[in-house]
Amino acid sequence: MAVKAIGTWVGGFYQTGRRDVGSWSSGAGAAARPNWRLEVSRAEGRLECAGVCVKPVEDVKSVEDEDLSSACPSSEVAGGAGNGGAEEQPRRLNRDLPKPLSLTDLTVSSHGSNVRVAYQGSPGAFSEAAALKAYPQCVAVPCEQFEVAFKAVELWLVDKAVLPIENSVGGSIHRNYDLLLCHRLHIVGEVQMAVNHCLMALPGVQKEELKRILSHPQALAQCEIALGKLGVIRETVDDTALAAQLVASNGLKDAGAIASARAAEIYGLKIVDETIQDTSENITRFLILAREPIIPRTDRPFKTSVVFTLEEGPGVLFKALAVFAVRSINLTKIESRPQRKRPLRVVDDSNYGTAKYFDYLFYIDFEASMAEPRAQNALAHLQEIATFLRVLGSYPMDTSSL
């Protein structure tokens, strides 16, 4: 099933105007009744949607053409070569585990009947657990980097991707916000999951014998109090499960890892302490990404995510947020990110010299479905103020228990 792009599109919905509340801008389009619709055809057997409304087009190119070479490379762990002539500890062999996809693997697409879901990290990562929570019967496909997971979906190597976007302790995952704008994937769902960090080591090693701890930077930051009491050296790697794998495969007797209980089971490590995070209610929110958007509904709670830019001026952001307030739409998240290609805007309209401002992208999540007229009217209103607007997805809220 294919959706043909017609007229002006915002997230797959055709918009010709609105007339539900007053407008801050004048023009012929502001007086028209909103008319959002989907035009569907079955020519290609799949659903496609432009999902973007742009003023001007050049702004999209400046963001989309961003060089993605800044993705974090795989980390190396100093001192991980082994323990000399020390006897190798018994541990589970991991040669049967799936090898994480790398950028060089993104050449051939092949997948079976099961849903294939990409996640960043190694088997045993928290992202894998989130993928299995979203799709219990899926084939979870590990990827080395966030960007690889995005491209795996685009190249039909996998059907979906489940990636973290924010944590209740560590805050937003900024890299994934940037990648959302660089790629044309759609948010089709979310998963919220409680994160329980465990300290693990080789069998027979006591917690007091550990001199250094390996883990992802976010995990290390979330366990600051426990690590401070141990007085150990912190070493960062690309994901928590990789830390457990490195300790096990290299037989590191002086090193421990912070990872999930499943990672300890997979790599044959012993948990020496659990629930070591600073805050017991440590929640990570994941986004589910797909090539096609889902059709919004009103029979269950929905959330919609958008990104937009604004002109510089007093009260402009207030006006942009007010389009949701006047319609009683609750905002659940607002995030600002500087535009990398055009970080500064120069304004010279005073007698006191030239002013320089950061040029920002604003990401907003709000509790409403794009099938609701109030959400359609709010975005039509926002379009009158914004210089760039794109709907990233309208998707069911995760209301399941943690």
TrEMBL record:
Matching PANTHER family: AROGENATE DEHYDRATASE_PREPHENATE DEHYDRATASE 1, CHLOROPLASTIC, PREPHENATE DEHYDRATASE P PROTEIN
InterPro entries reported in the protein's UniProt record: ACT-like_dom_sf, ACT_dom, Preph_deHydtase, Preph_deHydtase_CS
Catalytic activity: prephenate + H(+) = 3-phenylpyruvate + CO2 + H2O; L-arogenate + H(+) = L-phenylalanine + CO2 + H2O
Protein name stated in the entry: Arogenate dehydratase
Pfam families: PDT (PF00800)
Pathway(s) where this gene product acts: Amino-acid biosynthesis; L-phenylalanine biosynthesis; L-phenylalanine from L-arogenate: step 1/1
The protein's Enzyme Commission number: 4.2.1.91
GO molecular function, one term: arogenate dehydratase activity
Organism expressing this protein natively: Elaeis guineensis var. tenera (Oil palm)
